[in-house]
Every structure is written in structure tokens, then in C-alpha cells.
Amino acid sequence: MPQISDSEWKVMKILWTNSPATANEVLENLVKNTNWKSTTVKTLLSRLVKKGAIGFEKRNRTYYYYPLVTEDECVKAESRSFLKRVYGGALKSMIANFLEIQDLSEADIEDLKNILDEKKD
């Protein structure tokens, strides 16, 4: 699974929801939340192609980009990397830390209990 930077994640999120897309279409979606120029977007798209995260198809003189990896695959890989990098792979420590800093509703607690119960089976 390719290592994806924060900036590349923004591009990937657009392609996961709107693909195939041209560089200009990606830029149009990013203008709302960034001040990136066209060259920045094209650089990010090129990096993602090199990493094998996205592919492209050339139609006439226009490139259309599409994801080669799913969002779920990338989220899982990023989660494993974060767990290993920050918590040394100790899931219990990570969960305990998040539970300390995050307020949970009764529904959240019940959902977490259900997830843990499913893991038992």
C-alpha cells in the first residue's frame, strides 16, 4: 500500500468520490478548501501515479485520473502505520488514550461494546 501524504489524501478523497476526473476537475474541488494552483495539483497527481495509488487514461489530449486503491484499504494501512508509529503497536494503549481525551455518548459506548463482543466470537 502506498504511503500517502496529507496533501495527497485530499486529492485521493476527491477521486474516491468523483472519478474519473481531470486535473482541472480535481482543482475545482480543492479550491473550496485550499489555495493550491494547477501546478500543485498536477504534481500531486503525478506523485500518486508513481506510487501506484491512481491510474490515468488519456482521451484526446486530456488525462482522466482514477483510484487504483480503495479508501478502505488506505484507511486500514494508515491506521496500522499510526498504531505502530505512535503506540508501538499497542492497540490497548491507543484505545485507552482516545477514551481519556474523547467524550462518548451512551450510544457510542454501546456501539463500542458491540464491536468488542463481535470480536470475542
How far apart the termini lie comes to: 29 Å
What's the order of the H and E elements? HHHEEHHH
Physical arrangement of strands within the biggest beta sheet: 1-2
What ranges have pLDDT less than 50 throughout 5 or more consecutive residues?
Answer: none
Radius of gyration (CA) equals 19 Å
Separate helix tally: 6
Question: Beta fraction of the residues?
Answer: 5-15%
Structural class: mainly alpha
Helix content: 55-70%
**Mass-distribution shape:** elongated
Task: Give the strand tally.
Answer: 2
Overall pLDDT, averaged? 92
Biggest beta sheet summary: 2 strands, antiparallel
Structural account:
With 121 residues, the protein is mainly alpha-helical. It has 6 helices and 2 strands. It has a two-stranded antiparallel sheet with strand order 1-2. It is elongated and about 55 Å long. The chain starts with 5 loop residues before the first helix and ends with a helix. The mean pLDDT is 92.
Topology, please?
Layout: H1 6-17, H2 23-30, H3 38-51, E1 54-59, E2 62-67, H4 71-87, H5 91-101, H6 106-120
Antiparallel strand pairs: 1-2
Helix pairs in contact: 2-3
